[in-house]
Amino acid sequence: MLRSLRPLLEPVVLPHWWQDALLLLPRVVCGYLLTAEFGAAKFGLPWSPPDNNLGLFEVAFWFPNDVAEYGGIFALLPAFFAWMGAFSEAVGGLLLLAGLGTRVSAFLLSCTMLVAIFMQQLPQGMWNTLPAAGFLWVSLMALVLGSGRFGLDYLLARWLSRRPTAPAAAPGRPAAALLLLPLLALLLPGCVQPAHDKTVVYLLNVSGHGPVKQVGLRGRDKPLSWEQDLVLTPVVPDSLYRAVVTTYTGYRTTEVKFTLNGDFELAGADNRRIEFGLGDTVTYRARLGVAQ
């Protein structure tokens, strides 16, 4: 069984070691970015951001909804395709980095990047496709060449080549294993991060900031956005303003900034970070222009 995997694992070794070393660089950089940045933000791994509140191998609550917007078969099985896409980035990126199962991970990444390019990024303009296109080119290179001599596949293929030839496996066993794959494909995407409605009551003091035409709130999570104000209601004109925002989320925190007459507060500073806590509602009191 293991020896049958050797053609899939065995990399193409270039004539000189420095040629393999040169191709190692894009493989390691892309693998690291995929598993540590892009994938870990939406797929639960030990190094996923704690604020994202992802369990091990959970896909972020928002990702299936994004995938469903692609339409067609993606709308029929959004959790499956979201889980597979996030898995290919997070775990496939790690395998690409290590040079283990390089061709399999490269194939999954190629499929994921093609979907990202044509279903998500290309409609927003050609320049938006550049990150996914870069990962795609590296994945296609790894799909053809494998890990090169600087990867675990190279060591594993050499070990398999030294093993004595084993008796042929019973024909029913590989077939039975293949029959389990569709079942696993349907069960694993059930690991979608649970999400709930979280409400934040914002109370903002703007005293001492001159004439107030409009006080707004912008943020990371829907229904807020960074492009448009949610207008706060005056409790005491030119002094105290209020807004109540309910967000459907699985995260532990959200990020916001207030605006005064269309201008952001705390220019150049970090966003305000609000922890939801264990309850459904939290009150956030702040003073305009004063970080907390």
Automatic annotation (TrEMBL):
Tell me where the transmembrane regions lie: 73-97, 104-122, 134-156
On whether Transmembrane is a keyword of this UniProt record, the answer is yes
Q: Tell me the membrane topology, using the record's own terms.
A: Multi-pass membrane protein
Q: Which domain of life is it from?
A: Bacteria
Q: Where in the cell is it found?
A: Cell membrane
Which UniProt keywords are present, listed alphabetically?
A: Cell membrane, Membrane, Transmembrane, Transmembrane helix
Tell me if Ligase is a UniProt keyword of this record.
no
Q: Which family does it belong to?
A: Belongs to the DoxX family.
Q: Under which name does UniProt file this protein? A: DoxX family protein
Naturally occurring in which organism (per UniProt): Hymenobacter yonginensis
